[in-house]
Structures are given as structure tokens and as C-alpha cells.
Amino acid sequence: MEWLYSLFIEHSALQAVVVLSLISAIGLGLGRVHFWGVSLGVTFVFFAGILAGHLGLSVDPQMLNYAESFGLVIFVYSLGLQVGPGFFSSFRKGGVTLNMLA
User: What pLDDT is recorded for position 102?
Assistant: First the structure.
């Protein structure tokens, strides 16, 4: 049982992955619940993180910085996947002229 306690208290890469995954899972789980007909969705991940910080759960700042950068990379990649197919077709519809004017 000592290893479970140390998993949440001692700063390590494994601790950061477990804590961030647990907070995300709790937040996404609560996001599916409807309160008075309203669901906050992904916003509950933010609230679960605030609650975890209030309860004293912390992550190594270096690992948190890495997770932040990795999250930004995943966000930009997914945005590129969504916007990418229509990007080059916009050049065929007068987009080159609009880009030259800009």
C-alpha cells in the first residue's frame, strides 16, 4: 500500500502521468452528467484540476511544463487535421489573390 501512497505524493514522471490522467478521467466522467438539464462537458476537467490543487495534489513543475507543451502540440496537430483539407482548395477559389492583397 506504500507504493500507492508514494505514487501520488513523490514527484516523478509516473506520478505526473497518473495524476493528469486521473484528473482528466474524473473531469470527463463528470462532464457526462447533467445537472438540472445542463452539462458542462469538458469544462469539468478544469474544475477537477482546481479541486485537486486545492486538496494539495501537486506535480513536478518540469513535468507540468512538458505536459503543457505536449498539449499545445496535440492541439495544433488536431487543428491542422481539421483545417488542412480545405486549405489548398481555398487557393483555387481566388485565395491566391486574397493572399497577395493581404
Answer: 67
Fill in the DSSP letter of residue 93. I
Q: What are phi and psi of 10, to 5 degrees?
A: -80, 130
- Tell if the pTM clears 0.90, that is, is over it: no
Q: Within 10 Å of residue 28's Cβ, how many Cβ atoms?
A: 14
Residues 25/32, Cβ–Cβ less than 8 Å: no
CA distances from 81 to 26, 36, 70, 100 (A): 27, 36, 17, 25
For residue 71, give Cα distances in angstroms to 20, 75, 83, 94.
Answer: 12, 6, 18, 34
Amino acid, res. 27: G
CA pair distance 45, 32, nearest whole angstrom: 11
Torsion of CA 18, 22, 25, 31, to 10 degrees: -150
